[in-house]
Queue: 4 jobs
Job 1
Amino acid sequence: MMNTTTLISRKSLADEVAEKIQQQIAFGTYKVNQKLPIEPELMSSFGVGRSTIREAIKILSNSGLLRVQQGVGTFVENSTAIKEPLSQRLKRADFEDLNEVRHLLEMKVAEKAALNRTKADLVKIYEWLKKRDKAAKNDLLEECIDADIQFHISIAEASGNEILIDLYKSVAIHMRNWFLEVYKDTRPFKETSQQHKQLVKSIEAGDAKKAWNNSAKIIGHISQ
């Protein structure tokens, strides 16, 4: 039997420093055409040697993020070259923008769920719908919000599209605190209970068009 070795890639100190500088640019610490601190200051700031700083600058220069002018210094060349992690971008997103993205995703995952749902998916969706209705009826706002989020996540999971699932989960996680600020009681959840049931029925029936439309109706109601 042939032995195989799995190689684990480890980041160098220069890679770590380059990431930290990239984050600082993403957060606006350094802007386009702004000069970075001199090498001794960077060495002190990151606790590394001169060779590490130079290698990190080289990495970022090669990626187009920085430009080095001999005898002058190192400048931010292009902040758009930064590939900011989605989770970090969502944390600083405007809630209205975030909510708009969530609504678009909800219609799409509803449509896909109608086409790809399994019996197990439907069981999970109905369970969360039941918990949502129960919490709404008992005026348990926080429980109701959590159940509502999990209800829609279960629909996303039924879509069968891993990218859609990850996107919806990433957005939904950041909506919870906003829901707690916006909704003062469970009345909106009670008002849309029947519409949510119709949504599940259309998914169960495999009617993608109706699932999309039912999801849009729910969004239209809560946006009023």
Note: The chain has two domains: 13-81, 87-222.
Job 2
Amino acid sequence: MNLLYHCALLLFSSLLFSQSHFRFANEGKKASIPFIESNHLVIIPVNLNGANLNFLLDTGVENTVLFSLDETDSINFDNIEKIKIKGLGSGEAIDALKSSKNKLIIKNYVDLEHEVYIILDENINFSSQLGIPVHGIIGYTFFKENLVEINYAKKRVYVYPHEAKSTSKRLKKRTSIPITLEAQKPYVSLISVLNNEKIETKMLIDTGNSDAIWLFEDTKIKAPSLFFDDFLGRGFSGDIFGKRARLESLEIQDFVIQQPTVSFPNEASLFGVNFVNNRKGSLGSGVLRRFNVVYDYKNEKIFLDKNSNFNDPFNYNMSGMELEHSGMQYVEEKVELFTNVLQIDVSATDLPTKFKYNFSLKPVLVVLSVRPDSPAALAGIKKGDELKKINGTLAYKYKLYEINQILQSEEGKWVTIEYERNNKLFKAKIQLKKIL
């Protein structure tokens, strides 16, 4: 299952070296952390200064970042200083705060001196793109001290101490691949087969990128002739646009992945971001989720063991419209209840009933972007339209990933969309169209 959004593709404009240090609350014991997989991204539960939150586990960032707090959330921070952060996207650097000596608890994996970078821009909200609350991101500090396994099959993150007796046995049957750590991020060299040519490509290993692969165009790396322009996602510094295509294959030592999707972000999205030397792109979770991956930062290795996702197709949105949650709305739902009666006349036309009306908060779904000349654009759908129904079902009854599955399900499928614009209701039929 390959999903749509590419959230949290972040790069800091300067090196922010963290003093954070995790330890096991019970020495010598592993940590077993359940996670939610949304759009291929790994979301783990954390407790920060007493508040229960959800964080994205992202190898593509150096430090812990906090954003998207509700008005009801209350967290105390000490030792504050102002900083600037620049991320992928065409916008400017944004204001943030740096806080030290925070208490971060992730199951029995604990840091009592954790540094947190707090984003002040209320418009940065990745929860809307994932369909579940996500309050922050944690990166290098989580991985640096111990072995970390992301087991996509079991939906668990395991943290093991290096000295554990079971460690060597656990890794023995996995494929070991060398990595380098540069600016507190992991990089791997792979072979991309593009335009009938094998190209050695140094890639950031980026669990915070829900796409399969990103490549940066240069004199040698060029998008193939078959591509389409698309909205690729949203970073800290704005929207990211580029080309979407397919590689002929990707070689990770003995593993060969056929026809993966690949994105080529445009120059405006990359402007002002500092890359490490010879970096050619990113290896995202669209590929990583096909393995159970163990990260060994101390020895500069990763260990791969392919799982049941390995042969999943690399799908993409064939409607051309991207969706997001945009706030909540109260919805009145009528519930019909049968009364308790001793005898019922089956010939009666009206059975005794009573009704109950529930008012509950439901997400508002709006169109985030529409690709020009796509099926959605040709059907008249525009950015900002509010979805009301999909195939006759109220839109809020779907989870966001379920709608994404519909929009990338199969070429030629018709999808009926009812939407609202300027307080007027419209109806459109979209036929999914395969481009790649």
Note: The first strand starts at residue 23 and ends at 24.
Job 3
Amino acid sequence: MCTGKCARFVGLSLITLSLVCIVANVLLLVPNGKTTWTNIDNLSVEVWLMSGIFGGGLLVLCPGIAAVRAGGKGCCGAGCCGNRCRMLRSVFCSALGLLGAIYCLSASGTGLRKGPICLKDNAWGYHFKDTEGSYLLNSTEWDAMCQQPPHAILWHVTLFSLMVAASCLEVVLCGVQVVNAAIGVLCGDCRKKGTPQ
């Protein structure tokens, strides 16, 4: 696969994954789909860090767009400079996206391990913080573990797991694009003149 086609495939994948992270983080702000519990005391710090919106979202969306553009016709046309300018830009954007994806992965993993803030025994707090994530294995008791918000653990675990999975893929794809774009800068785009873009 030539560097241009690879860049386009990676870019489209990164755009999709960044949108997944943004939507998941926005949904974490409204537990159980309601704004009743959307305040600083009822949501975990990891939700307020907005790692899905900024880290795995916007910081990955930019390299995704840059990679798609790098896979298109270059500033001098196909076959001339081989799209080296856009490939070089894609190297730097992908490196920045890699940092954003790592931020999202670390914040989401921490949020998953600590568990949600919820009401238990008439007290709001991180009731699963000291379990080191073992609460994840007891899914049959999740509704009994938290009284409010309803289905808090399921909501929290599902969305943070989605962000962990998406950011893991983003880390891999941004790394692939850094290497792919660096090859594109050094060797040019393998597409010939007249090849459809």
Note: Residues 3-130+140-187 form one domain.
Job 4
Amino acid sequence: MIDRIPLPFLKYLNIDWGGPSTFSILMMLGFLAASYVLPKELERRGLKPDHSDWILLLGILGTLVGSKIFFIFEIWDQIFVETPGFDGKYLYPLTHWHGFPGRMALWNNLFSGSGLVFYGGFLFGILFITLYMKYFELDIPSYLDAAVPSMAIGYAIGRLGCWVSGDGCYGFATDLNIPLLVFDYHGAHPSGVPVWNTPLIESIVSFAFFAYFQFWARNQHFKKFSLGAQYLILHGFARLMVEFLRINKAVFPFFDPPSLVNIPNAEQNPDFLSQYYWHGFSQSQWVSIAIILAGAYFLVKWKLWEKESAAA
């Protein structure tokens, strides 16, 4: 895979930089696509497109903040290890940049360019945008409906960055040979075995969601926030299903995970990867379930499957 785009002229300038990150480029392209779609949709709905820049900016800010916070929660047990006393377990990682020797570090990971958990960014992005709209007394359900196609296209393009850069969002090893959906890292990743290409699967599904909302659902005159509720349910269900193919730690294991005892570099070992299996709902799956239930609640409470008249 291509983690960075090499810039040969940099070596002549004595600049020690690997080049622009492909993940960052595709993430930026995702936001640019959203910035093109959102103001047009706001204008089409008779809303104020002038707010689109702030909505996108706060969405980006929320994405960066929330995704890092959720990542820290995901690796919590690898940062705050069991040691005697409060000072050892909690204060040491807070006062040492690199944390415990040989363990994940709090500050180093919090401010690094990697380690982004989508649902943290998704929830914080919506929070920041909602607070902004509430402050300016905007019609929150209408604006959120207008933002749904932008969220779908932005996520679809951004997920391609995970695949192109080979950042590790891989799934379980598989013997199936499905073009594109099963991916062999060919030495680009320590696993070295064919695995489920979960970033591309999510991207394809999100492109399908964009097509559904952009070219059909938005023209059906559903009640306010129907598109928002539908997106919560659809995206939550898609992520819930993909997580069954993706290697993630279970928050509350239902079964015992594979043993790491006497397996050198177990997290990077092909044999370990081949044996790995789903053993309980991950953090993303629990959030997915909560998002699905929230969308279903709004859909049923306000009967959002009903349509308003074209005049309304």
Note: The CA atoms of residues 187 and 193 lie 9 Å apart.
